[in-house]
Amino acid sequence: MSAATAVKIHPPGQEALTEGELRAWRGLLRAHACLAKRLDAELEREHGLPLSSFEVLNHLDDAGAGRMRMSDLADQAQLSRSGLTRLVDRLERDGLLERCSCEHDARGAYACLTDLGRQRLAQARTTQLAVVREHFFSRFSETELSVLADMWERIAPCGNGNGHAAVNGCGVANGHVVAAATVASEHIAANGHSH
Known about the structure:
The protein is mainly alpha-helical. The protein has a single domain, classed as Orthogonal Bundle (Arc Repressor Mutant, subunit A), CATH 1.10.10. It is 58% helix and 9% strand. The protein contains seven helices and three strands; from the N terminus they run ααβααββααα. Helix 1 crosses helix 5 (115-135) and helix 5 crosses helix 7 (176-191). It starts with 18 loop residues before the first helix and ends with a helix. The model is unreliable at 160-178 and 183-195 (pLDDT under 50).
């Protein structure tokens, strides 16, 4: 087990959380659940695209040539292999992606983003960015966002430096809201403004 994923077990008598620990932990869980629910609802309402589908399309778009091996995509999207297969089946029926193979790599099937998938993703990113700005970025100053980013890095230090978790079994950094915030921050960086 690496140092980044090691769990420190406290001796008996130290199991209870302090008030501060409890508030911080429950606050993190509540904030994640609330933001993910809002984002999912808006993406579904505006684009008929649940958050899990958005993330799969987003990972494919970020990948070279809009394609990823199914096993890597499952890891990046934090889905089981069977969960990803069901989701890919739906997205393929909708024409947003297709299964493809690579003549140079016989290790498994690939998911490939279609032109329609790219179009739907581009439309959904506008909604996603608006939700993340309204319900997350607007609640904090630039300084507070920087402090938050530093704190998240302490918890999930397995990113590869560009906001995406490396494919090394450390998928914690790719939770729905984290991925959504990453996409939003990349678009802000590309557009040069936050509001």
